[in-house]
Specification:
Two copies of one chain form a homodimer.
Chain A (H helix, E strand, L loop, with lengths): L4 E7 L15 H4 L3 H9 L1 E6 L9 H8 L4 H4 L4 H7 L9 E10 L5 E3 L9 H8 L2 E3 L2 E7 L4 E7 L30 H21 L3 H8 L7 E9 L6 H5 L3 E4 L3 H9 L3 E2 L13 H12 L4 E6 L1 H8 L2 H21 L4 E6 L16 E6 L22 E4 L3 H9 L8
Parallel strand pairs in A: 1-11, 1-12, 2-14, 9-10, 9-11
Antiparallel strand pairs in A: 2-13, 3-4, 3-7, 3-8, 5-6, 6-7, 12-13
């Protein structure tokens, strides 16, 4: 059918385990989520392992998997996605690292890992180091939010298996980056470049007017840049090449936004999206509708349930699920009848664990022509016995593109 | 147990989606298929992804998968199976191409791609070009039904990544076959051989008495042979080597017959098997029983549901399913009690899609010693919750040979 579109609604960390405080129900089971239940009733349901049964996903690896990219091949660390997410040009084979602006004393001992959570002027400091040439390598640097930034190294013969320059603790000396395997010449070269970048960053930053002013104001200086978490930029087919779908993403964290950008999706902003429990979820829902006007696929990641899960706050998790439920209801009402909604989570963040777990998550597909099954409620245990049975994250996009009619036939 | 045998009954394209015309039931759900339901009731059921969840199979890739051959390794295109299906000797590494006898004018422009759908004399024309030596390559050619034929190239250093000589349209000039990658020497050699084969076919065919007579009768000449769809013949273990089962196939299309022959199975003919909706399915069922007399495994592909699906004819699909149901009933009654019947489909061909889709298909295994489950009807949704849960095509033969007792133990 012409004009079929899809929304992939990923409720971050929404899966859970039975919570004593909720009468041995999960937050989803305890929530008043009538719209999700209607979606399940009218759709096809199942349980999903974002990566594989029992595997504890990160939000990044899980999103890659659900978008159909094998995370064991496409994921080499956060660096490349983080850099892409702040608008840097990241190319296959580049080495990307996450960075902090930090404060060191004259003997290179860490005074503040976050440079007093500096708010302003990092763009000026970034300009000093961006484009630096070290040996035959070009170092691209861009500031991100607050004290954060990313470094992209481009040149021949670089490896990513290097230790961090960031010592990760106050009072420690800046580490010298080293190849993890001393015989790995490519990573040895990267370590050399990283160390030179760190050394020069200190020389260039320490006396800059931004820091002179911070000194005058009694603030911690942003006098060095410390890279960590090196990863080689993977080659991935763009989302559009892979699926013949024009994709957009409505997200509230840089991590997921970076993945979307890396895959070539457009970012559609939503006002009031904070990534916290105070986020304006209905605004995000409206941005999804707006994105659908000129895209055939919209990914939306709602962070709230994960935040409540990490905090171990059962009632807050129930509440944010109920606020998501209202968004689901609005979307079901407002979308064109030729639109699919896939409702799922990227992993469980159980109240009892306060971190991501490998428990599978519910999934429901709602839209034209689906094999509606007998499931009547949307939660971890009610979806068992649904038509999708038990699938993996990497099964989602083939299942969806089969319905959308955009998938090529394999064979005759 | 001694004497265990199996029938693998593949109802082509039988899976579907809810059809409005049938009251939101699938054709299987709407059909009066009491024998299939009895088989499900007495057997073990589940849902099957012929290749993987959501993946849209061809009938060829799906049959390979269900017969236990990974189609991502064993499938390189239709050529090799097509050639095997018409009785040609195809060996690992051979390049096989599908061909048409066509009509060209003197400047090599296509007048008729199918040479007036020539019915007679292609065996004489084939004899002219078969066994031709070009460079160090031997070109084997055999005619098939009507204007069709297959070309097998055998020699050192050949590649399959070449473009078609067949321009696929009337009024176009015969194309020169070219390597897809100009640096691919092996495929460049194949292209050279193909072009020379085409050139010589014109020289040999144009004045042959068969064409002289066609000219006299005002019929389109079969004055050139145009190859397309090159594929390298894959190495596959024969069905008998792999499973220690003597296999036969009762089929009604060349595509599936070719796969069976390629795997070393015997073809058992059925009178009245047409590949259309008028096919004599009961005759095919009787051929299955006959094949069981001296084979331990019989594959039977019934094409009807796929034909009705491609045509978008819901009622015709229901009717042909009911005719298959009668065959299922006959087989359940007639087979030796030591016989398994596996009832499934190679893919869905939904009425709403009018082409193959990636929706999974029902499967039921009936016979001695199976873990009979609680499923009471055979259709896409009734089998959910069965003992087989959700399996892949490549799981079928291990599951079956486990029951047949012909599978070796892996480990101690």
């Amino acid at each position: 059918m012409q004009g079929l579109k899809a929304i992939l609604l990923i409720c971050d960390g929404m899966g859970d385990r039975p919570v004593p405080e909720l009468g041995a129900r999960t937050p989803l089971e305890a929530a008043n989520n009538i719209n999700m239940n209607t979606l399940a009733l009218q759709g096809e349901c199942g349980i999903m392992d974002p990566i594989a049964p029992g595997i504890r996903p990160g939000s990044d690896t899980s999103h890659l998997s659900i978008l159909g990219y094998d995370p064991y091949k496409a994921y080499t660390g956060r660096g490349p996605f983080e850099a892409a997410g702040i608008g840097m040009d990241v190319r296959k084979g580049d080495i990307a690292l996450r960075c902090n602006f930090s404060t060191v004393d004259e003997s290179m001992v860490i005074v503040d890992r976050r440079a007093g959570r500096i708010e302003k002027g990092t763009d000026q400091l970034a300009a000093l180091v961006n484009g630096m040439q070290i040996e035959d390598v070009t170092a691209f640097f861009k500031e991100s939010v607050a004290h954060r930034g990313a470094l992209v190294l481009r040149g021949p013969g670089l490896g990513a298996a290097v230790t961090d320059a960031d010592p990760h603790e106050v009072g420690a000396k800046v580490h010298e980056s080293k190849p993890i395997d001393p015989n790995d010449q490519a990573s040895a070269k990267t370590a050399r470049i990283v160390n030179e970048f760190v050394r020069r960053s200190y020389q260039l930053l320490k006396d800059h007017p931004v820091n002179k002013q911070r000194e005058a104001e009694g603030k911690a200086l942003a006098n060095i840049i410390l890279p960590r978490g090196a990863g080689v930029a993977p080659h991935v087919e763009s989302f559009e090449e892979k699926y013949h779908l024009k994709g957009a993403a409505v997200v509230e964290t840089g991590l997921i936004g970076g993945i979307a950008v890396y895959l070539g999706m457009d970012i559609v902003e939503a006002s009031g999206a904070t990534g916290g429990l105070d986020s304006d979820l209905m605004s995000m829902g409206r941005s999804v509708l707006k994105a659908l006007e000129n895209h055939s696929f919209v990914l939306c990641n709602l962070k709230g349930p994960d935040v409540a899960g990490h905090d171990g706050q059962a009632k807050a998790k129930v509440e944010v699920i109920e606020r998501i439920d209202a968004v689901v209801g609005m979307l079901m009402q407002e979308v064109d009848p030729l639109t699919y909604i896939v409702l799922t989570a990227d992993h469980s963040t159980p109240i009892s664990v306060m971190d991501h777990s490998g428990d599978p998550v519910p999934i429901a597909i709602w839209g034209p022509d689906v094999r509606v099954d007998s499931i009547q409620a949307y939660d971890e245990r009610s979806v068992i016995g649904g038509g999708l049975v038990r699938i993996k994250g990497t099964d989602v996009m083939p299942t969806l593109t089969n319905l959308l009619g955009t998938q090529e036939k394999f064979g005759a």
